[in-house]
Amino acid sequence: MQTTSNPIRPPTAARARWPWMEICALLSVAQIVIAGYRFGVANQAIQIPLLKHLIDPTLYPRDPLIGTLAQVVPWKRLEVLIEAAQALGDEEKAHFVVAGADLFGEHRGYAVQLKALCARSGLSDRVHWLGWREDGAGILAALTAYLHTADAEPLGRAILEAMAVGTPCVAPAACGPAEIIRHGDTGLLYEPGNGADAARALRRVIHDPAFAEHLRLAARRDFQERFMAERMAAEIADVYRALVVE
């Protein structure tokens, strides 16, 4: 598995005194904290059947449910999700959900291309397009695993949201996701743009319940230790103090 450099992050010397990822995280951490407490483990049993029945009543409770929250735009690389679904194959009986839309209507052709790819791959009955949703935290809590596909993001807010509700995360080993996730401990990383590699990671989560539980617990603990609002605010204050001194 190879990692790629992040063209958005500042040089290494600057990163040593500028918590780049944490600064980005502060912008959205309040929403994530709320989601983590509102949709915790106790609520998960309620959310799962609701979401699966929206797709197909025959899914619950056996079939794995993989999903992503993202704008349906080219830089989110959602074709990787389709490739992962194809690589998993019919034997897993996994279903995939995409919650999101082209918010500004600038890439309508992309959704058409994605659905055509699903049809050509024989996946139209296993990849479900939910459109724009207001219940993102509930959807995340219902998933067997969260699959992040964008590989050029400075953060990856949905990964933090999934960690907050205790959903195992599978993400590309690049940019923000590679800084958030500790591979094999708080989530799994795959080669960016490689749907087959993403499928291998998903298969591990699906077939190893003990490992999946470890990911759930470790991710929630890591979120609470590293990304709570109080810590983010303190680190931002440290940055400002350092800049004033310089």
Task: Identify the notable features of this structure and list them briefly.
246 residues, alpha/beta, Rossmann fold, 6-stranded parallel beta sheet, 12 helices, 52% helix, disordered N terminus
Write a brief structural summary:
This protein is of the alpha/beta class. It has helices at 12-15, 20-26, 29-38, 41-55, 79-88, 108-120, 136-142, 157-164, 175-180, 195-207, 209-226, 229-245; strands spanning 65-69, 95-99, 127-131, 145-147, 169-172, 188-190.
Describe the structure.
It is a single chain. The chain has helices at residues 12-15, 20-26, 29-38, 41-55, 79-88, 108-120, 136-142, 157-164, 175-180, 195-207, 209-226, 229-245, and strands at 65-69, 95-99, 127-131, 145-147, 169-172, 188-190. It has a single domain (43-245), classed as Glycogen Phosphorylase B (Rossmann fold). The chain has a six-stranded parallel beta sheet, with helices on both faces. The protein contains twelve helices and six strands. Helix 4 packs across helix 7 and helix 5 (79-88) packs across helix 10. With 246 residues, it is an alpha/beta fold.
